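Why do we care about 3D structure at all? Because function follows from shape, and shape follows, mostly, from sequence. That is the central idea of this module. The next example makes it concrete: a single protein chain, its amino acid sequence, and then its structure expressed as tokens.
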Amino acid sequence: MKKVFSGLKPSGDFHLGNYIGAMKHWVSYQDKKNIEQLLYCVVDLHAITVFQDPKILQKRSRDVLAIYMACGLNPQKSILFMQSHVSAHAELGWILNCTARTGWLNRMTQFKEKAGKNREQVSVGLYDYPVLQAADILLYDTSDVPIGEDQKQHVELARDIAKKFNHDYNTDILTIPKPIIAKSGARIMGLKDAQHKMSKSGKNENDVIYLLDEDDVIAKKIRKAKTDSELLPEKFEDLKDRLEAKNLLTIFSSLAQKTPQEILNNYVGQNFASFKKDLTEIVVYKLSPIRKKTFSLLENPAEIDVILKNGAEKANDIASKKLKEIKKIIGFI
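And the structure:
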């Protein structure tokens, strides 16, 4: 039986790429019979690798839990919790720091991208957070980690750390996890620039469709989404160099749960006018209920806190037992 763990940072507004690449798949796991444990975390410890305004972080953390539930995550089927509410994450993170090698971290491409030319001034946490991510995963005997393509290297690091720890201490206590990457829609690109991933840190608001955007805002963003003057082709493969068109078709197919070719068959030889109209309809159809449910849940923050408390108790029960076993193997008394 499989055990699944994943999470998102409360460091910005969630967008369509987060939904298609992550949350939509998380929800689907709840009905699979071969999964015995589902944990979905709000990874607030990861958020503070870059300074966060305390009041905004507090608000966003509750927002994330509300969005999780609005997307369909059920606290009766999945353990939903705040990372900072389970101290074993930070404690195992330090232990695994002593197993991980600096050479491994030096090869992490996400750090290079996020730090840029300002590498000397960024926090140690930003450099080291993949090790904490490994602790997040390994605490729960996770077998499957549903992630976006950009996080694959971090799960590979978690695998390397687990293997080295097991080898060093002659044990098999740490389960070797595997990354699960969606076959389609794993990487949704910007509406204005499809060379870059859709991102909450993007500078152009029209490049991103946020999960809580109003219907008219969604329509406006799709209407203004960059396309080209060519007509839509017969084959999806013919869009490989038409990045913006390919991206819009990927969004459509992911939400409609059809192949890109099946969607394309309805628009062969047409321009983008009717395609964008139909794309707008399905995006609004999917996101409008999420927006309304999120705001409804946020009207009762006490209820959200109860769900977080219950989730933390369940997660702590699993994590504390695992950490106790790990400490014994290390030789702590």
